[in-house]
């Protein structure tokens, strides 16, 4: 941790081949958070892009003091992006958002307002602007996850989430585990609420997900989460002496 003043909010954005989206997203975040009066940084984790995203991030970081970039030396995936972003972030509150513009930064203040009562507020894309195959596989995957973990989260795949910093302190991510952040926070004793958020069609670039990494891989990850919930140490000390 450096000696700069800790901002109120850190926005963590993993980015892979989102060259057209990043400048727009930064502008939308600035517009959404400006009226709140809170200080913020935007942590863009550049995940080994091949389309010029890195150069765009470098330019933005040179122009704007609140852009705090992290550059990977290759493509490591979204879980690694979030993990590196969490470790780099300095804010008292950490917000996650996709770089593809489908999440709407205008929803961030609503998520933040819930942190007065909860440790985390997670987005729920009640009206998704995706293909029917994406909607179907996500709906099925969410039901399977909730059945297996005893959860009631409607939309674990929505990246728009807000956390108190301490809620993520003991959470350890592995590949694919970013999908289970609400459950991982609860495992560590945190409280979670859902907020309906806007969802927009993708304007630029291509989706990074297929049937395999949208459903089959998360199903395997689910087994690990089930094991973690069952084996988690849960005790209270009455007295020490």
Please tell me about this protein's structure.
With 241 residues, this protein is an alpha/beta fold. The protein has a single domain (9-129, 153-204), classed as Spore Coat Polysaccharide Biosynthesis Protein SpsA, Chain A (Alpha-Beta Complex). It is 36% helix and 14% strand. It has seven helices and seven strands. The chain has a seven-stranded mixed β-sheet with strand order 3-2-1-4-6-5-7, sandwiched between helices. Strand 2, helix 2 and strand 3 (70-71) form a beta-alpha-beta unit. The longest helix has 21 residues, at 211-231. The protein is globular. The model has no long low-confidence stretch (mean pLDDT 85).
Keywords for this entry:
Spore Coat Polysaccharide Biosynthesis Protein SpsA, Chain A, 7 helices, 36% helix
Provide a short characterization of the protein structure.
This protein has helices spanning 21-33, 53-63, 78-88, 108-113, 132-149, 181-187, 211-231, and strands at residues 9-15, 40-46, 70-71, 93-96, 120-124, 161-164, 192-196. With 241 residues, the protein is of the alpha/beta class.
Alpha-carbon Rg, integer: 18 Å
Q: Would you count the extended β strands for me?
A: 7
Tally of structural domains: 1
Helix and strand sequence = EHEHEHEHEHEHEH
Please bin the fraction of helical residues.
25-40%
Low-confidence stretches: none
Q: If you average the pLDDT, what whole number results?
A: 85
Name of the CATH homologous superfamily: Spore Coat Polysaccharide Biosynthesis Protein SpsA, Chain A
Shape assignment: globular
Given helix and strand content, the structural type is alpha/beta
- Biggest sheet, open or closed, and with what strands and sense? 7 strands, mixed
Using the coordinates above, name the CATH class. Alpha Beta
């Amino acid at each position: 941790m450096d000696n700069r003043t800790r901002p109120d909010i850190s926005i963590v954005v993993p980015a892979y081949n989102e060259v057209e989206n990043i400048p727009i997203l930064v502008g939308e975040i600035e517009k959404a958070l400006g009226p709140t009066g809170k200080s913020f940084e935007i942590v863009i984790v550049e995940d080994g892009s091949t389309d010029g995203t890195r150069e765009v991030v470098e330019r933005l970081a040179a122009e704007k003091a609140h852009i705090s970039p992290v550059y990977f030396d290759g493509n490591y995936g979204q879980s690694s992006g979030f993990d590196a972003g969490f470790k780099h972030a300095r804010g008292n509150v950490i917000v996650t958002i996709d770089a593809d513009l489908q999440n709407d930064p205008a929803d961030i203040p609503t998520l933040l307002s819930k942190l007065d009562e909860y440790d985390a507020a997670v987005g729920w894309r009640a009206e998704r602007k995706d293909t029917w195959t994406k909607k179907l596989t996500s709906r099925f995957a969410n039901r399977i996850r909730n059945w297996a973990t005893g959860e009631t989260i409607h939309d674990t795949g929505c990246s728009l989430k807000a956390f108190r910093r301490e809620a993520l302190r003991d959470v350890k991510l592995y590949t694919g585990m970013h999908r289970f952040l609400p459950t991982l926070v609860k495992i560590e004793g945190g409280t979670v609420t859902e907020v309906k958020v806007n969802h927009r069609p993708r304007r630029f670039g291509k989706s990074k997900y297929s049937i395999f990494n949208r459903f089959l891989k998360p199903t395997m990850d689910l087994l690990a989460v089930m094991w973690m919930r069952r084996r988690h140490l849960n005790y209270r000390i009455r007295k020490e002496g």
